[in-house]
């Protein structure tokens, strides 16, 4: 005879812990996850010093093997919204709502420095995976701090319906710029024009000649390009930039699934047109987060900023949601609901 039983488990941190135990509510799904699955590079490589004196073998191979084994033992880490279950740090208490770095799991033990306490709960909590979280800060820093926009300038945004770029276009319009975006479907093109307020948008998949398309939409040329794509799009943009233009390099999604990245032509335009091209990692600039929140919260509450989300239910939906980003399946910011509090 089969007897069913149930029990309640009370999750709690060890007594001496200074960490924070959270229950994940919403998880962000972002293209950069794919980049982190490639061969370890830059900041994601386990330092060779850790293994230099341990194994007399090729360090590149060894680092790759160690990274692979380490990754297999860990859930994918990303940004999420969560509720505090237990805290060993005085700044947090049980029941606090937070956003920050969590894992693709139901519960995460996080370091206090990786979490932000949510102060504004009169907006959708899912926004803290997007417009009020890392994508919002990315748009803010990449556009305002790098590009220094001026009223009347011509702004081009690639992958414009994504988590970051839909905000960049709206920030540009609020600054008084002329804004054009690209997307991969006609549905997204219409959303950009009718909901996000872009002056124009076009489906890049329907354009045989990207250079000609940009000349059609930007007869005077482009002052600011917010880069998310790379490859052929970047080549065409370089030909159409105006003198002293600025390019904020946020991402290059066209390259993430390639075994070997494509080369980019027309780089001499950077010199001839005296262009500023700058990449950035937003986590290095979160000292500006209070300044960003001071700007964006009133805009949201006054209805001057809209944010398009693509929400799916269940932790098990996360892998398919990630794959869908690279075929353009999502419409807006991809969010996964883990629990409804």
UniProtKB/TrEMBL annotation:
Transmembrane portions of the chain: none
Domain Enoyl reductase (ER): 60-336
Species, as recorded: Lactuca sativa (Garden lettuce)
UniProt xrefs under SMART domains: PKS_ER
Keywords (A to Z) from UniProt: Oxidoreductase
Domain of life: Eukaryota
Record GO terms (molecular function): 2-alkenal reductase [NAD(P)H] activity
UniProt-listed SUPFAM superfamilies: GroES-like (SSF50129), NAD(P)-binding Rossmann-fold domains (SSF51735)
Protein name in the entry: Enoyl reductase (ER) domain-containing protein
């Amino acid at each position: 005879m089969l007897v069913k039983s149930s029990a309640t488990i009370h999750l709690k941190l060890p007594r001496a812990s200074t960490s924070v135990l959270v229950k994940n509510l919403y998880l962000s799904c972002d293209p950069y996850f794919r980049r982190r699955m490639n061969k370890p590079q830059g900041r994601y490589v386990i330092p060779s010093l850790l293994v230099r004196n341990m194994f007399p073998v090729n360090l590149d191979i060894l680092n790759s093997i160690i990274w692979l084994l380490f990754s297999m033992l860990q859930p994918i880490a990303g940004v999420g919204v969560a509720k505090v279950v237990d805290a060993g740090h005085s700044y947090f208490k049980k029941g606090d709502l937070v956003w920050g770095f969590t894992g693709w799991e139901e519960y995460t033990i996080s370091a206090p420095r990786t979490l932000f306490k949510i102060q504004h709960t009169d907006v959708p909590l899912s926004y803290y995976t997007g417009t009020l979280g890392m994508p919002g800060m990315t748009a803010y820093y990449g556009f305002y701090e790098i590009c220094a926009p001026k009223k009347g300038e011509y702004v081009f945004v690639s992958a414009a319906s994504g988590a970051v770029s839909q905000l960049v276009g709206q920030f540009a319009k609020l600054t008084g710029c002329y804004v054009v975006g690209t997307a991969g479907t006609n549905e997204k093109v219409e959303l950009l024009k009718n909901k996000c307020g872009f002056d124009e948008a076009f489906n890049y998949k329907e354009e045989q000649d990207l250079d000609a398309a940009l000349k059609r939409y930007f007869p005077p040329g482009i002052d600011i390009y917010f880069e998310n794509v790379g490859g052929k799009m970047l080549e065409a943009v370089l030909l159409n930039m105006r003198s002293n233009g600025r390019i904020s390099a946020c991402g290059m999604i066209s390259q993430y699934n390639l075994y070997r990245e494509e080369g980019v032509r027309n780089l001499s335009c950077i010199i001839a047109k005296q262009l500023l091209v700058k990449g950035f990692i937003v986590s290095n600039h979160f000292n500006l987060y209070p300044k960003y929140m001071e700007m964006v919260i009133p805009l949201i509450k006054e209805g001057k900023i809209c944010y398009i989300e693509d929400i799916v239910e269940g932790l098990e939906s996360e892998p398919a949601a990630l794959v869908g980003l690279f075929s353009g399946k999502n419409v807006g910011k991809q969010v996964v609901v883990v629990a409804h509090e």
